[in-house]
Amino acid sequence: MDNWYSSVQLCMTLSNMGLYCRGTVRGNRAHNPRFGMFDKKQVKSVQRGSSLVSVARDQGIIAVSWLDGTVVNLLSTADSTTKSYVKRRVGGNTTQQQCFSLVGLYNMYMQGVDRHDQLRERFLIASGASFKHWYRKLGFALIDIAITNLFVLWSLGDRVNRRDAHMYFQTRLANQMLFETDWMHLATTQAPMEYS
Fold first, then answer.
1. SS3 161
2. N or C end of the chain, less CB within 10 A?
3. Contact 147/166 with Cβ under 8 angstroms?
4. Does residue 89 belong to any structural domain of this protein?
5. Membrane-crossing residues (predicted)?
6. Alpha helices in 95-133 (DSSP H)
7. Dist CA 20 CA 35 (whole Å)
8. Which helix (H) or strand (E) holds 154?
């Protein structure tokens, strides 16, 4: 879960519904365990890779604060407090740093989400205009997500050795939609929708 949305209350609500969650959280959110998260004074005195953990056993929530260049605060109802290692590049050297397994699992599953956000950001339709009604922007955002998913599937199936395969895909898609599709033929050949 992204830190924009996650909070202790959301973790508790999802846990009560039988859903597990794992995500970053902002340090200034209400109900965060203050003693289990690094503050600005502590950051200067501890070294990289240090961590603090807080466990609320009644609610089943784990809060981890991990120092990785900057402070990373995480909440989870899906993990335990076991330790693991992650690879970190500092300068030109790659080192193994000890951390809680929660950090490694979060990084492993969020890389795909971050990559999807990067691909979607490049050719956004939803942020191109402002709308009076929120649902129009949501509709365009869903179209953006669908086009990005289509590009990912296309790039997996067609190994295109182009310098800018994403731009090639977008222009090809636009040409097919605008010039190669006979919209009038589609409108007249489709059966009318029946509502019950």
1. coil
2. C
3. no
4. yes
5. 138-157
6. 101-122
7. 24
8. helix 134-157
The per-residue pLDDT string of the chain (196 residues; one tens digit each, 9 = 90 and over) reads 666 677 777 878 888 888 888 888 776 666 666 666 776 677 677 777 777 777 777 777 888 887 777 777 888 888 777 777 777 777 778 877 777 777 777 777 777 777 888 888 888 887 777 888 888 888 888 999 999 999 988 888 877 677 788 888 888 888 888 887 776 766 666 666 676 5
Give all strands of the β-sheet with 51-56 in edge-to-edge order: 22-24, 70-76, 61-68, 51-56
Domain co-membership, 102 together with 23? yes
Same domain, 21 and 105: yes
Is there a domain that residue 196 lies in? Answer: no
Sign of CA dihedral 140, 146, 152, 158: negative
Which two three-digit tokens encode residue 57?
């056993």
Dihedral Cα 112, 117, 119, 120, nearest 10 deg: 140
Structural domains counted in the chain: 2
